[in-house]
Amino acid sequence: MADIANAPGSAAEPSTTTGSNLTGQDSISNSTRLVDDDTVDHEHEEELNDDELFEELENDDYGTASFREQRIEELREEIARKKLIIGSDHGSYKEIINEKEVMDITTKTKHCVVHFYHSDFRRCMIVDSHLEELSKKHIKTRFIKIKVENASFLVEKLQVKILPCVISFTDGIAVDRLIGFEELGNTDNFSISLLELRYKTVGVIEDDSKKDTRKLERRSIFGCDYGSDGGTDDE
What we know:
This is Thioredoxin-like protein. The chain is an alpha/beta fold. Helices cover about 35% and strands about 15% of the residues. Strand 6 and strand 7 (about 175-180) form a beta hairpin.
């Protein structure tokens, strides 16, 4: 862990509290959103054609209705994924320069993970590498970072003192605070799966294993619902 007391732009006391937003109020409706339009490649955006994707199902012989249903669901998820990525910063780990934009993102995005960092601190770079990987895998959650010297108000408001400091938000409310590496085994070699499990536990990233389990509970391998009243015929 490193103390940012000697880093420029910091003058805050330590705190471990969560459950507050970036203003201490219910929302930040007056914050200004600063979007860098250069990060969006408008000329090369793909036009999503749902009909073309689902036409694949008409041409393929899956043998059973259950396989066809599963494939339809997979295509729908892929369509939703592409629509989310195109024209947005989901699926990437972006550095934010203006702290007002950080406030806007955390209050307007369902789930957001914010890394407060200093470029001279080695452990901050380790966190960066892990968060970048998670951002590509869990695109429904925004992953962003900001230098502490660019976030003097937030550093004081959120009482960030020890770096690296990663604060997770749900609907603008802080639900998790990771300070240093103590909760990660106090080692630089902690696994990304440990960090991923932490965020699944607090609910800032989706737990795919739970979603897959619900699918299995609803459907047998023959496409029939478990627990139906039909049963089997004993003649």
